[in-house]
Design goal:
With 198 residues, the protein is an alpha/beta fold. It contains 7 helices and 7 strands. It comes from Phreatobacter cathodiphilus.
Amino acid sequence: MSEATSGYAAEADRLAVQYESVTFEEVHAPVLHLLPPAGRALDIGAGTGRDAAALADRGFEVTAVEPTAELRAHGARLHAAKAITWIDDGLPDLPVLAAARERFDLVMLTAVLMHLDAGERARAMARLAAHLAPGGRLVMTLRHGPVPPGRRMFDVSGEETLALAGRHGLAGLFSATRADMFGRPGVSWTVLVLTPRA
């Protein structure tokens, strides 16, 4: 297990309840109008599969990447009826997925990038860009605020992330900030949507 995922295995049972207590539509309300109508979707850092399951319901062919075995197990149990392909893989390099050289119409990266240091973020952005189909959408959320005990997080701004994306051929379609859905003190979020430059 990499440093980026530290703390998640031990808290998987509690996190499964938290993640599933809100819906895909609630979490991603600001950008639902920017999602492709269907196609191939990749959910990186899929957790318990809440978003992957919702995308499957919307008609997407879904691949869910989750490096924490305990969270993958919850996802497979909670969403067993959904057509989701689960992969044990992770950023910054996604070695399993990279070997398949697949591209996706939608890539979701919810509360993931801020777990990576600057060098890892650069490698991750290159990998994300490589997996986006022409005209595809990369939907990303970044957490700001106090770091939970046992976790590894960095202060990553939306502006920095957009600049990094630009260096890898991606353009910003949407950027906004929002409050924390769980009301945690000092926690806020940046929501970004990126697409390959034409």
